[in-house]
Design goal:
mainly alpha; 411 residues; 19 helices; 2% strand
């Protein structure tokens, strides 16, 4: 009969939790979600209040350090982030080595990993020690520097991934613009002319950045923490997070929503599409969420933001199809029974109206999400008792012990 599988002989309880539906791996004070009530709060502040009154960078400070900044704390934080926007000149060659049609998420993921090679101060293997200690000012300053760099360079790397495919030169990060305005400037600035991004679009994108900044332990944040738990440098951990975000069930869903709407075409085709979803032949992208079982509170902010943007850009042609799809799904028993509602990914309609290419949409998710990843990474690095490496167990269901059979004896 052979030996019993390892897991049956071990003492203690092991729970198989496919997809981590019920597993909490740590305590956190960062983001609160009540999926049944449709509530999202950053450090206790409702997302609706922050979207109305705060900015992406101010909320970033809140997420990372735990409280809203004073005026001088904010000025320092913003200045550090904007000063770290410039990349090493080698980055130019790095981006130019990609194929002309490379997906921008592949480029962004690789670019964060590349950054890890520049900053040995962030690499515990090279420093030969655990780097970050609560109460040690020098080590906290080292940690802050990595945070400023990653947030500051996120918009620069994203803009480079956008421009390189158009054969356009890269733009040096400007001075005197807000974070989001600087991003749009680096994306679209041409030649020597003065270019001022439209303030309504800057505000709209800033709100979208803010609501995408964190969402507790989703797939990508978990990936960042799992990777970071080996004490690797934060650039490598952020690259891992980007890779996880890229998939169509997560950050790639905003791109998938538009491809789905294009494939549906006209509102008249919606009923047939809904039936195909129910037969499990198609995916209704932008619907459903692991945590939200009523509406996703961010979807209301997306709607409001869309109204503002469409006043400037004109209404997206796919909006009617999107509305017909929404209305049909919301009154269909299949979706009601499974408690499926729109998530945040219909913001793809706004990105399209603003003129971003379809495959750039996940980048517009990754850029603000680095904030949440860093907030959780910092929390883990400074937690009481130090970092515990994340090493889940499996339930082994394979063969028991077998003896090797020489090739000529096999049947
Ligand atoms: N369309 C049709 N049916 C769906 C959808 C959907 N979008 N989402 C879930 N369901 C169905 C499932 O088939 C399942 O049905 P069953 O019980 O009959 O088998 C039931 O609803 C429960 O869904 P699960 O897949 O178990 O939910 P899970 O929490 O594992 O997945 C996920 C959540 C991945 C977001 C899923 O809803 C999905 O694939 N949605 C579409 C992709 C998408 O929009 N992703 C973005 C998520 S938000 C974000 O990352 C910002």
């Amino acid at each position: 009969q052979g030996e019993r599988p390892e897991n049956e002989t071990e003492k203690g309880l092991r729970v198989q939790d496919r997809g981590f539906l019920n597993t909490a791996v740590m305590q956190s004070t960062i983001t609160y979600i009540d999926g049944d009530a449709g509530v999202l709060r950053y450090r206790g502040y409702p997302i609706e209040q922050l979207a109305e009154k705060s900015s992406h960078l101010e909320s970033a400070y809140l997420l990372i350090y735990g409280s809203l900044p004073t005026a001088s704390q904010y000025a320092h934080f913003e200045q550090e982030i904007m000063n770290h926007g410039v990349t090493h000149s080698d980055a130019t060659q790095f981006f130019q080595s990609f194929r002309y049609d490379a997906h921008p998420m592949s480029m962004l993921t690789s670019a964060f990993a590349m950054l890890g090679s520049y900053y040995s101060e962030a690499n515990p293997s090279l420093q030969g020690q655990r780097l970050y200690t609560k109460g040690d000012a020098a080590s906290l300053a080292t940690m802050d520097r990595q945070i400023y760099r990653i947030i500051g360079k996120a918009i620069t790397l994203a803009a480079m991934a956008y421009r390189v495919r158009q054969g356009r030169e890269f733009v040096t990060p400007p001075t005197g613009l807000s974070y989001t305005a600087s991003f749009l400037y680096q994306m679209d600035h041409i030649g020597e002319q003065d270019y001022v991004p439209n303030p309504i679009l800057v505000k709209a994108l800033d709100v979208l950045f803010l609501i995408h900044a964190d969402h507790e332990l989703n797939a990508s944040c978990t990936t960042v923490l799992q990777t970071g738990s080996s004490l690797v440098d934060p650039y490598s951990a952020i690259a891992a997070g980007c890779a996880s975000l890229y998939g169509p069930l997560h950050g790639g869903a905003n791109e998938a929503v538009i491809r789905m709407l294009i494939s549906i075409g006209k509102p008249e085709n919606v009923p047939a599409f809904i039936e195909a979803v129910k037969r499990r032949e198609k995916t209704l992208s932008g619907f459903g969420h692991r945590v939200y079982k009523t509406s996703d509170p961010r979807s209301f902010i997306v709607r409001k933001t869309a109204d503002e943007v469409f006043k400037v850009t004109g209404q997206d042609q796919l909006l009617e199809t999107a509305m017909a799809l929404h209305d049909a799904a919301m009154k269909d028993e299949y979706f009601i029974k499974r408690r499926l509602a729109p998530n945040v990914d219909f913001c793809g309609l706004i990105y399209r109206a603003m003129g971003f290419p379809l495959d750039f949409f996940p980048v517009l998710f990754a850029v603000p999400r680095v904030v949440g990843w860093l907030a959780h990474w910092r929390q883990m690095m400074l937690q009481e008792g130090g970092v515990k490496i994340w090493r889940p167990r499996q339930v082994y269901v394979g063969e028991t012990k077998r003896d090797y059979v020489p090739v000529d004896d096999r049947v």
